[in-house]
Amino acid sequence: MMHRFLQLLLAAALLAHASAGRSADVVVGQVTPLTGPEARQGMAYAAGLKLALEAANRGTHNPARHTFKLVAVDDRGAPEESLQQTSRLIAQSRPLVLTGHVGGPSLSALLKSGLLDRNELLMVGYRSAQILPSSQRLFAIKAGMPEELGKLMTHIHTVGWKRVVLLYENEGGAEGLLAAADAAAQQAQVTLVDRLEIDKGSLDAKVDRVLRAKPQALVVAAGGFVAGAFIERLRLAGAQTPIFTLSNADMEQLAVRLGDDHLRGLVISQVMPNPYKVTTAISKEFNDLARAHDVATPRSFTMMEGYVAGRVIVEAIQRQGTRPTREGMTAALESIHGLDLGGYMIGFSGASRAGSTYVDLSIVNAMGKVQQ
Hints:
- InterPro entries: Leu-bd, Peripla_BP_I.
- The protein is α/β, with parallel strands linked by helices.
- It is built from 13 helices and 16 strands.
- The chain has 2 domains: about 190 residues, Response regulator (Rossmann fold); about 130 residues, Response regulator (Rossmann fold).
- A 7-stranded mixed beta sheet has the order 9-8-10-11-12-15-16, sandwiched between helices. It has a 3-stranded parallel beta sheet with strand order 2-1-3, sandwiched between helices. A two-stranded parallel sheet has the order 4-6.
- Strand 13 and strand 14 form a beta hairpin.
């Protein structure tokens, strides 16, 4: 009898040991526009995430051999639907982490709902045309809007222009954006002669105001759909004013709407490595994977952003060992300092949730090609 008891005890110990060393199945959740005006951004981000997670499943950057699964759900870009879909995804798929939300209103609604806090979930990587309230639940994997505005205003000053009009999309929290734009303009010694809120219903009126103001440069801080519609109207009205946009406008989405004639000369700030040229190790890795697995989604800066988000998530999971948890994600991310993903540095210091300060500029040349 005692011998049988010892056998059972040994079997239980071996089972516990095997369980302790077994890697986890990790669900990464994304609620994003997969249909509607901003669907290109949501789909590109999801494609980049999937590329990174599937590479990890094959053993790349994944020594603990976790199995990653992306669950992407369509919210059509509607904040109320985004919140409902996020709640449903959390209940049904039990993700370890969220990523890739698109749109300030959706993210603001999610933060206000308390859903992240109640479920001890983090959002690692997202896209917004506004500066969001500070939250310990949001980790950015790229430079923020103040850094982008600073880069654009400094370039405008370097060229010799002084009079600038800012056009911005008010997603329900424009105060931070306007303050950042004012600070960037002051630092660069340029003057904001006007600040105009734009949306789908006011484009013609704002085009008229820009024509009357006769600025030397325009800075457009808006999502791809609204930014593209405004630039199209402005160019059709005959204005040749130099235009600068932030990265959330999405170069590829603008290119689909505008074509070479209206894109020519456009300058856009970029916060990701170039997805088209092998200028860094991560660019090569990204392009090699996309080619090897015949990814249907066209390569883009947004797709690269999704890939970087996936790489950061995989790294944070690895740092937790074989049993990663939602609660352990914060400490794992905060332990990342000066991580080189292959020419793109990521680090979170102290209470900072901004993982990078990298900003570069792209310009569309006379041939309609992007130069960086």
